[in-house]
Amino acid sequence: MASDDRAVGHAAGDASVEDRLARAAAALAAAEGVAAAGPSRDSSASRRRSRSRGPSGDRVPPPDDPAAATSEPEPESVARAIVLRQLSMAPRSRVQLERKLRQRGCDDDVAGRVLDRMTEVGLVDDEAYAEMLVRARHSEKGLARRALAHELRKQGIDQEVADEALSQVGAGDERLRAEQLVEKRMRGLHGLAPEVQTRRLAGLLARKGYSSEVAWRVVREAVDAAPEHQRD
What we know:
Blueprint: H1 2-32, H2 41-51, H3 66-69, H4 75-89, H5 94-103, H6 108-120, H7 126-140, H8 145-154, H9 159-166, H10 171-186, H11 194-207, H12 212-225
C-alpha cells in the first residue's frame, strides 16, 4: 500500500504536492510557534549553558531530578510529528492518518485535535487526496470507476467527496482506457485461439473493475480486428 500511495503522489504531480505540503507545514509551525526542524543548535547550547550555571554565574552540576532527565514530549507534539512524517512520504486521507495514530498508541481525542488543526492549514485534505487517487489509479493502473470507488471507500473517503472525485472519469474515459489495456495485453497473446484471447482479456478488464458490457464490446472488437484472425 505504501508504494501505491507514493504512486498517487507521483502521478498527481510531485512538485505541486510537495510545495503544498511544505507551505502548509510552515504555516502550521508558525501558528504553533514550533520550528519545523526542531530546536536550533545555538538555542540548545544556550539552554545547556544556562542550566549549567547558578545565580552567581558559577558552574553547577546538572540537577538530579529523574523526571527532568526522562521527560517526554507532549502527546500532541508526538501526534503532530507522526502525521507530518506520514505526509512527507505520500498524501494520506484523514482516516488513514487516524488509523496510523491509533496504531502508534495516540489518544483519539489528541488525534482529533491534531488532525483538525492539520485540516485547517491544508495539510489534511480529503478532497484533494481523492482527486489525486482517482487520477493516478485510472491513469497508471487503468482502474474503472467501480474499482476506484472501492479504493476510495477503503481509504475512508466520504461518499459525497468520493462521488465528486469519480466525476473526473466519464464513460468515454473508461472506454478509452479499457481499449488501451486490451491493446497492450493483446501483444502477449499472439498466436492463441480467439476464445483463449477473449477469456484472458475479459478477465483482465473484470479485475480492473470494468462492467461486463464494456469489457465484452472492447474485447470482441480487439479480437475480431487482430491481423492473425483476418481472412485472406
